[in-house]
Amino acid sequence: MLTPDWTLPVAAAVFLTTLFILNRVLFRPLFQVLAERRARTTQVSGRVQEILDEHQVLHEQYQQELAEERQAGYKLAESVRTESLKEGNNRVAQARRQAESMLANARSEIEADLDSAKRQLTREAEETARILADRILDRA
What's the predicted TM-score (pTM) here? Predict the structure, then answer.
């Protein structure tokens, strides 16, 4: 069995003295450095989160503006397409009117030529009939 002797209080005193010295020289500064590190890490983490939040807001604004600009581009393209279709339809209508006018002119020229040809044929037929009648009457 163990019997306590004078070395036990001396060992306890050495242990407590060493613990006190280590606490003052090593542990307190170490814990202070760790606490400061933790505070800085927390501060940096908070700042990083703020920056991420700001970035998220800016990203959402960018996406919204991009969508609005796309929509404006689509509207502009649609208006250009509509205007182009109107202009194309106007040109087709104008070409159709010109074609109809040309066709009407051609018809009237053809009718005039036809009337002229009919009159000439009628005159030639009358002339031929007169000549034939004269020949028939001269022989008879």
Answer: 0.47
